[in-house]
Amino acid sequence: MLEIKFQGRGGQGVVVASQILARAFFSMGMYPQCYSLFGGERRGAPVTSFLRVDEERILLKCEIRRPDHMISMAPDLLDEAEIGSMLKPDGLILINTPHTVGQFSSLRAFHLSLVDASSIAEEAGLGTAINTAILGAYCRANCDVPLAALEEAISETVPAKVEANLEAVRRAYEITEMFPPVG
To answer: What are 167-170's contacts with CB under 8 Å, separation 24+?
Structure first.
């Protein structure tokens, strides 16, 4: 079973990102399960979304405590000490950031991928909704989902600005930086 944790802030599209990725996995014949946790506020409040995917129906109904992959859409929410103890060995951490890998030296024991999804979304005319850009980066960094399946899921799930979202996913797929574990 593959388990993914998304974290970000309201307005970034955290929940929609997990739903799009779930749809892509479903189109590949997998069984997805996603759910989210919200704060009391709306825009800007921390949001966490979880996605499980398996080849068989998923009966487990609890929070993901030790994900295989962590997708951070708001790097200011990253608790690097927590990630080190929570992420499964050989896990992937994908971070939306304009910074270089040197800013994340404490995470180098894991597969690390960096993309400035915020700039990509802004350039595509999507504002703060970085969900499709971060998914393009995930697709590149992880290879569980082919880009075509992700594009199809976006076309079927996203209600507006479909072409701009497809542009964002493709751009992020092209420029995502990937770093293998060190040490």
So the answer is: 167/124, 168/117, 168/120, 168/121, 168/124, 168/126, 168/130, 168/132, 168/133, 168/136, 169/132, 169/133, 169/135, 169/136, 169/139, 170/136
